[in-house]
Design goal:
This protein has 438 residues and is α/β, with parallel strands linked by helices. The protein contains 13 helices and 19 strands. The relative contact order is 0.08. The protein binds S-adenosyl-L-homocysteine, iron/sulfur cluster (SF4) and FE3-S4 cluster (F3S).
Length: 438
């Protein structure tokens, strides 16, 4: 019996697919990359319409396969199915779906499969409870050695006006610090070399504890003190909440990567207000200044959106301007996509041609910056965690500040730290060779 999981969306989903894999393996399924699956799980995303359309296209293609093999189990889980009314819509459009679960009820997957196998009962479940309990002892079939994902909190309270996440993931719930520390310690003892802490807004970690016993800075410090040769990353930080205390802790410990993902979304104060982001461009620039004062080599990456309702040419120019000022080491750029049920979807929309022109301009600007920054790496030595081998046999890994480097070496080096001299750069790509020097 074989399973296949199609994962869409963010790191959170990538990690939750490791949980789904564990559930399926417990039931006796083994993974397949081919088409011989007996169960297929779609772990879905709905952050933009393009994500949804892609998934719906894939589900549509299963109709024929299911007809040829009625025993095939089709399960749709995750953010897309958590949207209001979506489960019903999916059921009527694709009646061959067997299981639908929301992002907050993945723990029901095993029972849903057993119910189907034993009682021929389909399960369609999406949460109406806004604040489901945090389950601490989740088991995962991890697939990303030497990196491990660790969820520190679920949900989001911010309600940025463009964003669907708070509606599909519910309110912020933090995991207990003791559980997180125990999980990280165990992973490090198992040989994982890099841990990435996950949360929609990690800086509000602990806000939901009534006794306020710990905050994100406190958690980071505790994790940084776990002995061993490893490093810790985290995402995502919100500019309204990233404070000096956190910056100081990152600066203080070598185990904490000097790499901060700090989505700016827009460089225009008008748009930031309309987005409900609770910071101004000056506040953002001030945080960047503080980070760089304390950690001059810290990589700062970002998410930027163009075409939010009401974005004028002037607003867009403000975005380009701040991109040039900050010089991000990397940026994920998006065209705003109206999401049903969010306030921005009701505002007056911008024509697609304008959005398309703006994103091209933005990408061009950022590419130029990335290229210039890459040049600065040439001739310098960085400590790199060897993560993987590519098809051409070359190894790849990341610097502490988050840059991907390609170099030659033995596959046996995967999972160890090596010093790499950067010999060449090409736009966003860095190439190097392993060296004994530091
Ligand atoms: N919690 C994180 C990221 C969540 S989603 C944060 O607050 O930064 C990842 C990115 O998708 C966002 O940073 C945003 O840039 C983009 N995004 C979210 N909703 C979007 C929408 N409706 N249209 C286009 N991009 C969107
Ligand atoms: Fe969405 Fe904003 Fe929450 Fe990020 S902080 S998940 S963009 S609502
Ligand atoms: Fe998508 Fe859900 Fe992540 S909507 S971006 S998978 S939190």
């Amino acid at each position: 019996m074989h399973y296949k999981i199609n994962t869409y969306g963010c790191q959170m989903n990538v990690h939750e697919s490791e949980r789904i894999a564990h559930s399926l393996e417990k039931l006796g399924y083994t993974e397949t990359k081919e088409d011989n699956f007996d169960i297929i799980v779609f772990n879905t995303c709905c952050i933009r319409d393009t994500a949804e359309q892609k998934i719906l296209g894939h589900i549509g293609k299963l109709k024929k396969i299911k007809r040829a093999n009625p025993k095939l189990i089709i399960a749709i889980v995750g953010c897309m199915s958590s949207q209001k009314g979506k489960a019903e819509e999916l059921r009527s459009k694709y009646p061959y779906i067997d299981i639908i679960l929301g992002a907050n009820n993945l723990e029901d997957l095993e029972n849903a499969i057993l119910n189907l196998q034993n009682n021929h009962k389909k399960t369609f479940l999406t949460p109406d409870d806004d604040k489901p309990q945090v389950i601490e002892d989740v088991e995962y079939t991890r697939t990303s050695m030497p990196n491990a994902w660790v969820n520190i909190m679920y949900g989001c309270n911010n309600f940025c006006t463009y964003c669907i996440v708070p509606y599909v993931r519910g309110r912020e719930r933090s995991r207990k610090p003791e559980s997180i520390i125990a999980e990280c310690t165990e992973l490090i003892n198992q040989g994982y070399k890099e841990i990435t802490l996950l949360g929609q807004n990690v800086n509000s970690y602990g806000n939901d504890f009534e006794d306020k016993r710990i905050d994100f800075a406190g958690l980071l410090e505790r994790l940084a003190q776990i002995p061993g040769d490893h490093r810790i990353r985290f995402m995502t930080s919100h500019p309204k909440d990233l404070n000096e205390k956190v910056i100081d802790i990152i600066a203080k410990y070598d185990t904490l990567c000097k790499n901060i993902h700090l989505p700016i979304q827009s460089g225009s104060n008008n748009i930031l207000t309309a987005m409900n982001r609770h910071y101004t461009r000056d506040k953002y620039l001030e945080i960047v200044k503080k980070i760089r004062e304390k950690m001059p080599l810290c990589g700062i990456t970002t998410d930027i959106m163009v075409g939010f309702p009401g974005e004028s040419e002037r607003d867009f120019e403000d975005t380009l301007d701040i991109v040039k000022q900050v010089k991000f080491s990397g940026a994920f750029t998006y065209i705003y996509s109206p999401r049903k049920g969010t306030p921005a979807s009701l505002m007056e929309q911008i024509p697609y041609e304008i959005k398309s022109q703006r994103i091209q301009k933005l990408i061009k600007t950022q590419n130029q910056i990335t290229k210039e920054l890459s040049k600065n790496y040439e001739g310098k030595i960085y400590r790199v965690l060897v993560e993987d081998a590519k098809d051409d046999g070359k190894l790849c890994g990341r610097t502490d500040c988050g840059r991907l480097v390609t170099f030659s070496g033995d596959k046996a080096f995967i999972g160890s730290f090596k010093n790499v001299l950067i010999t060449k750069s090409q736009s966003a790509s860095l190439f190097g060779e392993i060296t004994e020097e530091k």
